[in-house]
Amino acid sequence: MKLKIIASMGFLTLLTACGATTQTASTEAAAEVKPLAKTKKSEQPVETPVVVAKLPEEKPQPEPEPAFEVPEIDILKGKEVAEIEAVFGEPVLRRKDKPTEIWQYLSSSCALHLVFYPENGKTGPLTVQHIAMNDRESVKDVPVRACFESQLKKLGAEKVKELTS
């Protein structure tokens, strides 16, 4: 039993001694580190010019008024698929739930949803029977006129004329 205790103590002493030697050696080695090359000091410090990015001083211009009269949104009700597609183009989303179709158009501020139903219940051409709009960032309602105007601005004056004629 005494032999085990003596052996254990000897082993611990050996480990402690190794740890101290390693620590001292690395400290001494760090103290002896010398730079590889000498650098010349310049006689005068070189000034680096300070460059700061500036924002443009121009004030943002308000969006120009549309070059057309914005019609009431109800102008879309009763329009057939071909008429809507001729003015608005392909929808971003087209959902078909027989006998209805839902089309979605997006502007930077809102989404316009057009719901087409058959004109005569279950038969006849699909026409816009319901219109819905929502904000693109949240589910809150948006002002109808402002949303419709943003959709029409995206199309341009010529397409709006087609819609109103």
Short description:
By secondary structure, the protein is an alpha+beta fold. Helix content is 35%, strand content 22%.
Task: Sum up the structure in keywords.
single chain, about 160 residues, alpha+beta, Beta-lactamase Inhibitory Protein, Chain:B, domain 1, four-stranded antiparallel beta sheet, 4 strands, about 20% strand
Mean pLDDT level: 76
State the helicity in percent bands: 25-40%
What fold name goes in the CATH topology slot of the domain at 75-164?
Beta-lactamase Inhibitory Protein, Chain:B, domain 1
Q: Cα-atom Rg, whole angstroms?
A: 39 Å
> How many runs of DSSP E, i.e. beta strands?
4
What share of residues are in beta strands?
A: 15-25%
How would you describe the overall organization of this protein?
- The protein is of the alpha+beta class.
- It has a domain at 75-164: Beta-lactamase Inhibitory Protein, Chain:B, domain 1.
- It has 4 helices and 4 strands; from the N terminus they run H-H-E-E-E-E-H-H.
- It has a 4-stranded antiparallel β-sheet.
- Strand 3 (110-120) and strand 4 (123-135) form a beta hairpin.
- The longest helix has 30 residues, at 2-31.
Task: Give the helices and strands, then pairings.
Elements: H1 2-31, H2 81-88, E1 93-97, E2 100-106, E3 110-120, E4 123-135, H3 144-155, H4 157-164
Antiparallel strand pairs: 1-2, 2-3, 3-4
